[in-house]
Description:
This protein is an all-alpha fold. It has 22 helices and two strands. The chain is globular and about 60 Å long.
Amino acid sequence: MAATRPLALIPNAAMRALRGDLSPGEFAVAIRRAAREIGEHVSCDARYVGRVEAGEIRCPNYAYERVFRHMWPDRSLSELGFTPRTAVRRRGAAPPPVPVPGSGGLDDSYHPDEENDDVRRRTFLNGGSTALVTALGLDLPAQAATPAAPTPRRVGAAEVLGVEQAVRDIRLLDDVHGADTLFELAGQSLRGAYVMLNDGEYSAATERRLQAGAGELAISVGWLAHDSDRLADARSFYSEALATARMADDAALEAHVFSNSAFLARDAGRAREALRAAQAGQAAARHLDSDRLLSLLVMREAGAWALLRDRAACERALGRAHTLFDRGESEADPEWMSFFGEAEIAGLEAQCWSALGEFARAADRVGQAIALQEPHFVRNRVLYTAELAHDRLGLGDLAGAAVHGTAAATLLGQVRSARIRGMLATTADRLRPHRTVPEVAAFLTVHDAA
């Protein structure tokens, strides 16, 4: 069979023009809001918007088409910059659709060129561990998918150690490289852990460790989804981890889930949810003898209060968090908290002041975070530098914002994080009207190339 030459991507200028001054994340929020108005469900995020504007999605699926027609009723798909569905389908025969468990299968609207992330997300939300595997695009082993008396796999210490090591490897690689390139690979480890948990044969002691390992893996994959700007996926993985923690009666795992869930909710703008998650995490961690863990969870609470613009409550939480942090480390501190040092608590405090509009204090604290950050936490250095650019812009310092933005954009070559790219894109969009400032022009050149 002759090889097919891939089609060159044609940017969708029409959709980019419709986005206007909104950031990709803000535009995604508007699309989701419009979907709710007509009773449709789409999990649109900044990544989807980027794919549309880049021309990767030549024709939206039917759910998105209905939403777009609702938003712009006087425009056809062609006028929105998309290729007609009939033209897309003429490129070649599509592979047969794969029925989604619990969905009743797929209709003849399926085509591989259409966006189907929502189908995969709904698959996860509507099912249990099997749906988790499906959502990752991975198949269960034959014996796990066959209802007729499968042969259980014996799971012992070696297998559990493999799961625990996968968690460590993911964290180390994320510290250096960011999440985008790791998300799918991490899913393979998660799939294996849940297959062993659901279909394996093991002792009670092994079960406890395997549950903890699978839960930690689900949290790790959830974080990779979060940092890749796949917020709906992240929420799903955290829900799976929380269910695992509750079934295992594992307070440490539960506290970890709530810490990440609070962070996710804050980034998604759900301040009350962030607050509840942070406080639930503190309740779970109360008897774990780890002041550093409690400090992190109280910092999550402070971030939620800042988003709610409650300065007094935020300051009280910051005070409690620093008091707990200053009590030092202990043997009870979870292994996953290795990132939570002087640099991280300074960075989290900076985010609070930024949310409260105190940009001078935010810039001061994030500058300390950059100075204190250990070299191997490359991703965090890029994050803090991007945040500093945002804070300098908040102070009206166009040149300073551009200089720090240039530094962050330069480092993006080493780190793959859609979340950080989105932050820089927002700063770039706000600076574009000021490209006559030399530093701004230099930043925009580097940013757009990156």
